[in-house]
């Protein structure tokens, strides 16, 4: 009789142990389910961003191929590294201008909204020009309100070269940080004080003014 009693006593303990094990497994599985749900939300956000980046990246890749095969005169441009949205450009001073013989480096930054928004183009090389401020910001209408998705970075570089050839003091007010003062004042003075026929005799008269 004692042996049968022991068997009866052992059976509940075994079933009770299995129920505890099931509870532990269910507790361990609940955190795993909670971790899976946030990943789905992240996937939705990244898909929207990827679609926008894909549109701009295709356009930039196309322009890169075009500017590589047929670059604008005295200009070159391309990505700095693996980032297709960050470019470095080189412009040689236009022949016949005061910048002839100079080499100027520019940074070009495309946004994910390109070509519906203009690229950001700034001079890295310090330059004295009435339409380029001390921060390298270019006062060019097509880089601001007059931008059009039909424009390309090649056309932008051509416009910058044209700006180096012919300064446009009228548009210098669009500079956010103000124009480069070192060049603006001498240009205006030369307009009012042309070089005299006899520089030695007239030098003191010009200086006194």
Topology:
Elements: H1 2-69, E1 75-79, E2 86-92, E3 103-109, E4 120-123, H2 153-165, H3 181-192, H4 199-208
Antiparallel strand pairs: 1-2, 2-3, 3-4
Protein model, in words:
By secondary structure, the chain is α+β, with helices and mostly antiparallel strands. 49% of the residues lie in helices and 11% in strands. It has helices spanning 2-69, 153-165, 181-192, 199-208, and strands spanning 75-79, 86-92, 103-109, 120-123. β1 and β2 form a beta hairpin. It is globular.
Q: Give the biggest sheet.
A: 4 strands, antiparallel
* Global shape: globular
**What is the number of beta strands?**
4
Question: Residue ranges: pLDDT <50 for 5 or more in a row?
Answer: 12-17, 179-209
Short précis:
This protein has 209 residues and is an alpha+beta fold. Helices cover 49% and strands 11% of the residues. It has helices at 2-69, 153-165, 181-192, 199-208; strands at 75-79, 86-92, 103-109, 120-123.
List descriptors:
Ubiquitin Conjugating Enzyme; globular; alpha+beta; disordered C terminus
